[in-house]
């Protein structure tokens, strides 16, 4: 042992105790190299895919620290299928294409066991250079002669990572065996890139509980002692990745990468080298290149993209005008890929070729926004400067382009130009979109670069400061919303200027501006929680501020996740609070958070639980009519996934109507929090207007229902005095935490709407008059929208120098086609509301087609080849229609004629499967795609192997209606290979298909059409029929006064026979302190006597005094069968409030004769009731209760507790809590 170590010590590096492996520049080393990667589930009989690269590698010295690497005998092999049934097969075309690049000379520096600068010819792709890095990675090794076990941080292909070594010596063979394990998960400078996750904030507490990716790399070296030093005679590296959709044991998809080199021979160098021009390509660490431009789910030749894009867009426009979209997804993805490879000049050429055709133009503008770098900015700049697009087109394009743009200093700087364009400022919606989207771009930049440069947010600071200086409320609100999107730390000083009590130079500002300023702190609450806590707490305690502002400050304060001490301070403030609205809101939020179970709220929920106990005696009994906050969540530690829902209702003391309502939903998954959607509405302006007009004036006037002008003329002076700048109501929408839309509806906007529907406005130039004229002449309308809603990618290096990628794509395609022709008698002259007193006949046909695709990919993705596991989920909605609508507004009659389905129509389908895929650029048309669970004759026979639960399920169900000649059918198929014990999520791998179809059904007579009639004011004949029927049903002959009746009919019409179908009537029988509603459904047809009669009674006996009971009774009486006489069921619900007692809610169900299936269900429920009662803590005991009766009663026994009594004919159950 000592002899070997001394030999290695002196021969490999001299006098240092720690010496490294060296190459002798006077020698030529030839190795055989084999690299293999497979990706699959590593389970019996499941398909996987992989590649194998074989070659010879020759390393020859050029100078003491410079070496030449040359590759020869290249072979590229692919595998796709079930291991054992299908092995690796050679791909001659791909071998040649790869050989053309990798056989070019590579020059690298090498000293002290470290690979330095790598040089290659300019035409060699980054992918091939990275493969060479994988080969050179064998020689990036540290050998310490004095230690058996050691660890150090060193550079490698994965980045700057921790390595652990173990050395073993064989004295007899004069060899050293070296084992090396590299921690590739926690590298300081990791060779990894994340795309599309900037808006999904990392959740450290969740990540600490587990992750969905586990990776490990281990090397083994055999080093032989020679006179020149240590010589690597053989080395093997093995890298394993376990990936799961969620955090579960065992993983859901696995990667295994193995590379080996074997020394073939060592020769003396000849000393002559012909290398040719080369340039530096970086060091041993993996470098990202074209794989970032390559969408992993398509493989195509990207040369000369313009004609390919033109052909695809024309095909999409033609195909999707009259057909469904189900087959268009791949074409759209290919257009995105080609667009990203096109130059700016190519985009200009495409615009010139496609912009004149409206269909082609729309498809092009919807797809070009997926070019995610400066090219799309320059392209849109030219369109805006030249006035080539409408404001509507520009708004849609700018919204998607800026939100899908790569967040880099160059793109952010270039995007500033949109904020200075007159064209952008000329349209309010376009201007709002540009400013908000720029804020989102800055936010994503700050997620990548820290500290985030202040120059990025400066344009938004300027807009805010100018708005404040000019007292421009709209400008201030817009700028503050954009600063909220940006979440830039440098924006905090500017936001403070808008906050009373915080700014040194306080300015009197509208409540709306202050509220927006508070809300703009939402992202800074995560990035700078301590500063935001100080500001929010200061606003929280200022009792002179409007309650709405203080409530928003409370929301922001808890977003910072305050510690226990601060929550205790908040509790002390609330104990002294006099504003019940503010106190109720704050307490309800604290109470909701005390029940939170998500990891990010772990410490906060504990603090809130303590605060709830302190505040409950004072604030627990506040009514739901005050301001409230609801926070509900669910989280699974097993899957490390969960959901959060929040609802905020802000009110003030003067009104019962909320001033603001906010709702939001979040997902917790893979250590991140995704704020999916947030909607907010503010109605403060409406309340102000109503208080000026006086709601009594509206209620006491008897206006004709189509006289909108009368409403505008109510208290005209008050309406005109309402300020234009104050919105009547406002709304906003946020996606992934970023505000993408907000709108203020003020008096001016409403007046423009009323003008638009006034046919006297501009006479023949009236937009509405043109629209109605177009309908009468016949109109064709077609609209399509492709939308890449979600694109996330995580790419990291493997030991072979190939990038492994985890990516997810969500693509939505929508197409609507409608043909409409209308006839209006008499023609509308003055106002659109005249339509409701005219006879309108409308004939239309068309279809709505919606396709949603989800792609998930785990595998190797380069511009040369792709392979791995691919999940494809597709949901289709296809709704064709053809009908005629006749409407008589004066007589309140509506008639809808629907053509019956003559062909099978699939209205909904969902298909999902996981595939092993293999593609290469040399043979793109020969891509392989094998289902993970292959379809074989054996699989259809449901084989079962030990440890698995394999099955193949097929099911079909149809509900037919012979009356209407239509059937609705559902079919389902599934193939699964379950390994629940080891891999809980393996059930996701397999084929799934669900479809809903409408099918024609054979009938005794031909059905020409299905007619639906609705009458909202019965004729005399109909009225007499209903009166006679009601007299018969209620067994009395007194006069019956019937209030407005709605009669509905659904009939199948045929010239050869009488109508068949059903008719329904709804009418009211009011009485003192009692409302009765009758609902009767009757079968129509020869010898038809089936009816269902329902009577609902609401008995009101209420008093405002404390000496009389409050009593509310609701009764629903069902009778059905032949003339409503076969079966009977009655439901009674009562709420009783005794003096000085808590309310009691009781329900009772009585029945007479019932159908057999209902009797059987009731008996089964009664038998299971004692068991389930026991499970939820109810005590059950036998009791003699009335037959044919089920009852339940709920009442308060003690504060915060309740008793439940449930009785069935055989069992009485009582809650003992």
TrEMBL record:
GO molecular function: lipid transporter activity; nutrient reservoir activity
Domain of life: Eukaryota
Keyword Glycoprotein: yes
Signal peptide: 1-18
SUPFAM superfamilies: Lipovitellin-phosvitin complex, beta-sheet shell regions (SSF56968), Lipovitellin-phosvitin complex, superhelical domain (SSF48431)
Cysteines paired by S-S bonds: 161-187
Keyword Cell cycle tagged: no
Vitellogenin domain segment(s): 23-661
Alphabetical list of Gene3D superfamilies matching this protein: Lipovitellin, beta-sheet shell regions, chain A, Lipovitellin-phosvitin complex, chain A, domain 4, Lipovitellin. Chain A, domain 3, Vitellinogen, beta-sheet shell domain, Vitellinogen, superhelical
A Gene Ontology biological process term: cellular response to estrogen stimulus
Transmembrane segments: none
InterPro entries the UniProt entry points to: Lipid_transp_b-sht_shell (IPR015819), Lipovitellin_superhlx_dom (IPR011030), Vitellinogen_b-sht_N (IPR015816), Vitellinogen_b-sht_shell (IPR015258), Vitellinogen_b-sht_shell_sf (IPR037088), Vitellinogen_open_b-sht (IPR015255), Vitellinogen_open_b-sht_sub1 (IPR015817), Vitellogenin/Apolipophorin (IPR050733)
Protein keywords: Disulfide bond, Glycoprotein, Phosphoprotein, Signal, Storage protein
Protein known as: Vitellogenin domain-containing protein
Source lineage: Eukaryota, Metazoa, Chordata, Craniata, Vertebrata
Gene designation: LOC114802229
